[in-house]
Amino acid sequence: MDLVWQTWTTPDDIKQWNAASDDWHTTQARVDLRVGGSFCSRMEAKDGSVGFDFEGVYTNIVPHQLIECTFGDRSLQVTFIDGPQGVTVRETFDAEEVFSEEQQRAGWQAILDNFARHVLSKHGT
User: Fold this and answer.
1) Which residues are CB-neighbours of 69 under 8 A, at least 6 positions away?
2) Is residue 18 within 8 Å of residue 6, measured between CB atoms?
3) How many Å apart are CA 73 and CA 110, to the nearest integer?
4) Which residues in 75-96 are b (16+ Cβ under 10 Å) and which e?
5) pLDDT tens digits for 95-121?
């Protein structure tokens, strides 16, 4: 659980896994992991054509179990569930209105898949 939590909350690690596709990357990450603290990940297309800051404020933190935050007028809940097969990371978020829920779900899942691969590479498996 410690490795999963640390990998989720460490800026250098976030830059390694936080992308929904191979043509995007996170160039900067900042984490002030406390209630009222802020976070920001600078996400950019690798060709430099477009980018944005994914940023918000932490509203609830239970170490190794839960992170809740707001970003804009939306909210995100990340739960870390320890089980016999390892740690499950579950994100629940308010959908936005520009892209379909299916597109949003696929993008967030792709990021989670990158996260899982990064954790496994750090673990040596």
Assistant:
1) 39, 56, 57, 58, 59, 75, 76
2) no
3) 23
4) ebebebeeeeeebebeeeeeee
5) 888 888 899 989 999 999 999 999 999
Contact 56, 38 (CB under 8 A): yes
DSSP-H helix ranges across the chain: 2-9, 11-17, 101-123
Q: Over the stretch 9-28, which tens digit does the pLDDT of each residue have?
A: 999 999 999 999 999 999 99
User: Which CA distances in Å does 112 have to 30, 36, 73, 98, 116?
Assistant: 19, 24, 22, 21, 6
Name the token pair of 89: 């990371």
CB 47 within 8 A of CB 35: no
Cα separation, 117 vs 26, whole angstroms? 16
Whole-number Å distance between alpha carbons of 78 and 68: 6
> In the chain, what percentage of residues exceed pLDDT 70?
98
